[in-house]
Amino acid sequence: MNIDWPGGNGADREPPEIDTDVAHVARVYDWLLGGTANFRVDRDAAERAYTAWPGGIDGVRADAKAHRALLGRVVRHLVREGIRQFLDIGTGIPKQDNVHEVAQREAPEARVVYVDNDPIVLAHAHQLLRGTVEGATRYIFGELRQPAVILQAAAQTLDFSQPVAVILFGVLHFFSADDDPAATVGELMTALPPGSYLALSHLAADVSGDEMTETFQRLNAQMAESVVLRTRDEVLALFGELEMVEPGVVQLPRWRPDPDAPTPGPLPMWCGVGCKNSGQA
Fold first, then answer.
1. Is the pLDDT of residue 11 over 50?
2. What mean pLDDT is predicted for residues 197-223?
3. Which of 38, 92, 117, 237 is the most exposed place for a label (fewest CB within 10 A)?
4. Which of 218-254 are b and which e, b meaning 16 or more Cβ less than 10 Å from the residue's Cβ?
5. DSSP states of 82-99 as a string?
């Protein structure tokens, strides 16, 4: 299988154990999307926490589906802009219309590298490696807090002399201020040539703020990871000097919606796409 274990020989590595005593974000998200790659601890944590979410459990399930739909729209847009290489960090448990499926449907020669450090994502990684003959897919068991390691491993599949789209969906809100997410994004984008893109989504502090704060106070107490909510301006700052693609940083359903999409209500998550132009470091 095309799986990389940065820092060592994958053949000598034992797969990490899946911790079923503490809730994990990838499994909670899987449950929200109707998947089965989750455990009681994940379901219980979600049910207790998301009662505070706007609209309750039904509301958060609808928002999770909107998040997944956004990923498809972003990937299709980028392929139609000429992008043929994707680095998807914080991939999560495979679902329908993964990045390589959407990209290779539009351009069979597209190359996709997935990165995640959750053992259960690794256990399902084979589903991410069923790409086209013309293209390529690879999975890296890696950590976003080590961007140099990710870039070195991804260079085995991606050509960094050509534009690459970095996908950071639902991952930077696990970075505290001390983790300096902007510096991590900057290190990734500095390594890529002009014409490359950054696409990210991030939970909002300034949409349904009281409900969001209560939700994640509950969830943070039960999960292995902790969530940091950010405002629209704070999310915009993560793009640094990249040129924002219209419509800029907006709530998920407002980013280039399909023509027949219903008018969305408030959704407590920001998203955006930025492009690296020539002359930008």
1. no
2. 82
3. 237
4. bbeebbebebbbbebebbbebbbebeebeebbbbbbb
5. T--EEEEES--S--SS-H
Place of tokens 């704060």: 213
Greatest Cα-to-Cα distance within the chain, rounded to the nearest angstrom: 52
Question: How far, in Å, CA of 167 to CA of 24, rounded?
Answer: 20
Residue 73 has pLDDT above 90, yes or no: yes
Distance between start and end Cα atoms, the chain: 35
Name the nearest CA neighbour of 184 among 169, 168, 162. 168
Residues 6 or more apart from 122 whose CB is under 8 A from it?
3, 15, 16, 116, 139, 141
Residue 144: φ, ψ to 5°: -60, -25
Taking a C-beta distance cutoff of 8 angstroms, is the pair 166, 196 a contact?
yes
